[in-house]
Write a structure and sequence with these properties.
mainly alpha; 4 strands; two-stranded antiparallel sheet; 63% helix; two-stranded antiparallel ribbon; 700 residues
Length: 700
């Protein structure tokens, strides 16, 4: 099951009815068919293709899990490692799901079977599955395998995780995988593609019924429970609109009696105007349209549509608008204002909730927790540093924000006012209103902020360009640990550290080297972009048919293979104000207009001519310097000749100053003796010098 996170679930007493449901699921044919059916050749059943490559068999998995011989375990582990490498290649994890050898349905099935192995093989297989579900494109052929993955995940949660006395880290991964699977199923549902999969929906019914009994277990952990609630809400819509719907379409394609406040799709599901305008805003940002401000005005007009009946649409709208906010400041402000007004409205109606049973705001925490996750991704993956800083600090001054953190123990007059929807302002707001019997929205918001602050600090660890944001995150976490003693908030830190597989404090162990791939499966990076792009093609269809259709899948995949990979890589690029040689050449605006491109071309031409002019000037300067040096040497030679000529005229010597003439004659021995005799006739001079040296007589 993976590493133990906490043992708080040991205190949960499971009722006899829940135990009966779980035991019945374990003995039901669904679990056997889900995990063991077509293990030898799974691709033949779900993808319609059979390959001659070696497949993962049930015997290999059972041998690896129950072997007691060390050599045999090492041999099987090496063999399974080969399956993992093949699975990564088929999933296209390094190419964002595109490539010649990529076959995503087969890769998903193999990852599900590899996840049945124990130990680190299980964790790595689940990480691969989560990463692929996050970045893979939407394709109609993926639907059968998506139901298979959904059934496998629900089986693991209902039949294995629920019956354990401890909370394991695998449960967190399974809940996140389940969220991505049902999000993809919901997008296919909006396209009207689930009509042919009613039998698959019926197979999920027992597991979904058992999943509704998990509130007592995951109530204290909003990071898990939010994913479970999304799965249950999406499945409820599937059953209502696909299996139980009796509404008929009229000649105009609209259902009978549909509300004017919603937009009707061909699937019979009425989406809110909030979601429609969020997709429109994302489309305007991608196309650099001038109608963005008008769309955002209409979006603010429909801000009251965040309601209990369509909270799933609201969560999806926040997801799409958050993707637009990663590129545009106006969209970020609209997103923050939208959630700020929503929280303020909910808190004002909190008193009416206790008096009036019709005003039930227990669902509001789901919207708030979804928004906190989206805001965390903006802080990490926005295209500019100013967007990331604004998402964390807000539109206020940085100095006042840091001052408020350092003096958290002093209560200010406006600490209960929600100024904007930034992480720092929400942290101040929720921490000031947090108490033992506080509203569920306050508890979930405070829990989600602390939980995601740990993840932000882990993601930014080792990134020198993000030192400012990381230090501010560290200060916020340290103040939380220092002044907050409630176990419900402290457990959020433990859960986040367990999820990133690093139980130690990331700030006290900064000396250790951080792996480059650590924490890659903690947050989703691409599913928001994939969802927004697919919904944009659904709401605003292009001239060509929708690429989700089966008959155009191969052509669209070949055409958009390079474009999709390039655009997705641009999506996660981080830009900074500091100069960085590897990022100076990357454009800050993804779609420049005609005048911008013309200015760039003109700048290139001017630079080219300027470089040529510099080269010519350098050549001329070199020639001038050579001539000056030559003239200087010539002047020195002439000056020396004049000096020597004057010396010869005065001294009648041809030698240079301080130069002795060459000695050409050899003095014979007889001349030497004569010289000695001559020296004997002048003793007085030497005697006088000796006396001067000895000091006996005066030299005068």
């Amino acid at each position: 099951m993976g590493g133990i996170v906490t043992d708080d679930l040991s205190s949960v007493n499971m009722s006899s009815s829940k135990l009966h449901v779980f035991n019945k699921l374990r003995e039901s044919p669904y679990s056997e068919n889900t995990l063991k059916h077509n293990v030898e050749n799974p691709r033949a059943s779900y993808s319609g293709k059979s390959r001659s490559s070696v497949s993962i068999t049930r015997e290999i998995i059972l041998k690896y899990n129950f072997t007691q011989h060390l050599k045999e375990e090492e041999y099987l582990k090496k063999k399974i490692r080969g399956y993992i490498l093949r699975c990564k290649r088929r999933l296209g994890l390094k190419t964002l799901g595109c490539g010649k050898y990529v076959h995503i349905p087969s890769g998903w099935i193999e990852a599900v079977y590899l996840a049945q192995c124990k130990g680190d093989i299980q964790d790595e297989a689940l990480d691969m599955l989560y990463a692929s579900l996050d970045q893979a494109y939407f394709d109609y052929d993926q639907l059968p395998v998506l139901f298979f993955v959904a059934e496998s995940v629900l089986h693991r949660l209902c039949c294995d995780a629920f019956l354990t006395a401890y909370l394991y880290s695998v449960e967190i991964k399974l809940a996140k995988i389940g969220y991505l699977v049902f999000l993809r199923l919901f997008i296919f549902f909006l396209h009207g593609h689930l009509e042919n999969f009613k039998e698959h929906l019926l197979r999920l019914h027992p597991y979904l019924y058992a999943l509704t009994l998990s509130e007592d277990m995951y109530y204290k952990y909003p990071n898990i429970f939010s994913n479970v609630v999304f799965i249950l809400e999406a499945s409820e819509i599937f059953y209502e609109k696909v299996l139980l719907s009796k509404s008929t379409l009229n000649s105009n394609g609209n259902t009978e009696g549909h509300s004017n406040k919603k937009v009707n799709l061909g699937s019979g599901y009425e989406i809110s105007h909030l979601l429609w305008h969020s997709v429109a805003a994302w489309t305007c940002v991608q196309k650099n349209s001038l109608k963005l401000n008008e769309v955002l005005k209409h979006l603010k007009f429909h801000k009251t549509q965040i309601q209990k009946k369509c909270w799933l649409d609201s969560a999806l709208a926040l997801l799409v608008l958050g993707e637009a906010a990663k590129f545009n400041m106006a969209c970020l402000k609209a997103l923050m204002d939208l959630v700020r007004d929503f929280i303020s409205r909910i808190m004002l109606n909190q008193i009416q909730e206790e008096k009036d049973d019709d005003n039930d705001f227990s669902w509001a925490w789901k919207i708030v927790y979804t928004y906190i996750k989206i805001l965390t991704e903006i802080c990490l993956y926005a295209t500019t540093s100013y967007l990331r800083k604004t998402a964390f600090i807000g539109f206020c001054d940085c100095k006042t924000s840091q001052r408020s953190i350092s003096h958290i123990e002093k209560k200010s007059e406006d600490e209960g006012i929600l100024k904007d929807g930034s992480i720092l302002n929400l942290w101040k707001y929720f921490s000031s209103k947090f108490s033992e019997n506080c509203h569920r929205l306050i508890l979930t918001g405070y829990y989600g902020l602390v939980y995601n602050l740990v993840i932000i600090s882990s993601e930014l660890r080792g990134d020198e360009e993000q030192d400012g944001l990381r230090n501010l995150t560290w200060q916020t976490l340290q103040k939380t640990k220092l002044y907050e003693k409630d176990e419900r908030i402290l457990i959020a830190i433990k859960m986040a550290q367990a999820e990133i597989n690093d139980p130690t404090d990331p700030f006290t162990s900064s000396i250790t080297k951080v792996p480059t791939n650590r924490g890659d499966e903690t947050l989703s990076k691409y599913i928001g972009w994939r969802t927004a792009d697919t919904l944009s093609k659904l709401f605003f269809p292009p001239a060509d048919p929708l690429p989700l259709k089966k008959q155009l899948r191969k052509q669209t995949q070949m055409q958009n293979q390079g474009k999709g990979e390039e655009s997705m890589k641009k999506h996660v690029l981080r830009f900074t104000v500091r100069e960085h040689p590897s990022k100076l050449q990357l454009p800050l605006v993804p779609y420049p207009d005609f005048f911008t491109r013309a200015d760039k071309q003109l700048t290139k031409v001017i630079d080219h001519h300027w470089q040529e002019e510099l080269k010519n000037r350098q050549k001329e300067d070199a020639i001038c310097e050579a001539e000056e040096l030559k003239n200087k040497k010539l002047m020195e030679e002439n000056h020396f000749r004049e000096i020597m000529k004057k010396r010869e005229e005065k001294l009648h010597k041809n030698t240079k100053p301080y130069e002795l003439p060459p000695r050409t004659e050899i003095i014979p021995l007889e001349d030497k003796t004569k010289c000695k005799d001559i020296e004997g006739h002048i003793p007085a001079v030497y005697y006088k010098k000796d006396k001067c040296k000895s000091g006996k007589s005066s030299c005068d």
